Q: What sequence folds into this?
């Protein structure tokens, strides 16, 4: 099962919202993330200190012998790891909430993230969504989108996600559309950037099949 990508490990997914039930975007702006990280309070990032080099140890010994008193044995000087800060999060998890609409989602995300336009991972699984609204296309750097276990019924809704040029991982299983004929091929046709669909990697065979399908469609349109 996928988790937050390595590039997001310094950010904390804002998850479950302290046990509160989120049924609207106004609720999202009222409650605090369970992580405790809020807008304007960046997450600390502790970076490990590099071990002393042999030359540094020699220099340390040389300094010891020039001091008053007997020479001290060579010891690696331990330093405290410096604390740095960056944006509070690149991910939002809103799964298992009765969200039927994404109206004003952009405004709600802006209320909790330092840089909402940098959002990379959005989890809207197991909500009550019946469509894919244009609100999702307002996050141009979105790479992972979880929409599984909702109530989306039309494959035509997926075409909207084609506007997300960086989208690489998408989940839609557990929606009625996943039971439709040629579901996988249709989704990959709409979003050629996908590397994984429903937690399964997109293979070369998948891409070749999609290419044949698209070519056949174009041929039927010309005839």
A:
């Amino acid at each position: 099962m996928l988790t937050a990508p390595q590039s997001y490990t310094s950010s904390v997914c804002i998850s479950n919202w302290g046990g509160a039930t989120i049924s609207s975007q106004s609720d999202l702006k009222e409650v605090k993330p369970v992580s405790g990280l809020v807008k304007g309070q960046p997450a600390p990032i502790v970076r490990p200190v590099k071990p002393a080099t042999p030359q540094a140890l020699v220099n340390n010994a040389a300094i010891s012998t020039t001091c008053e008193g007997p020479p001290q044995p060579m010891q690696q000087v331990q330093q405290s790891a410096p604390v740095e800060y960056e944006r509070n999060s690149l991910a939002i998890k809103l799964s298992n909430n009765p969200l039927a609409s994404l109206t004003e989602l952009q405004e709600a995300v802006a209320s909790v993230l330092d840089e909402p336009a940098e959002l990379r991972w959005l989890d809207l699984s197991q909500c009550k969504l019946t469509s894919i609204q244009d609100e999702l296309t307002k996050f141009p750097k979105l790479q992972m989108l979880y929409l599984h276990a909702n109530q989306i019924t039309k494959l035509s809704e997926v075409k909207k996600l084609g506007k997300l040029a960086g989208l690489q991982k998408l989940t839609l299983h557990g929606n009625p559309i996943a039971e439709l004929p040629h579901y996988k091929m249709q989704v990959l046709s709409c979003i050629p950037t996908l590397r994984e669909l429903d937690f399964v990697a997109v293979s070369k065979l998948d891409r070749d099949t999609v290419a044949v399908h698209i070519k056949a469609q174009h041929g039927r349109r010309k005839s």
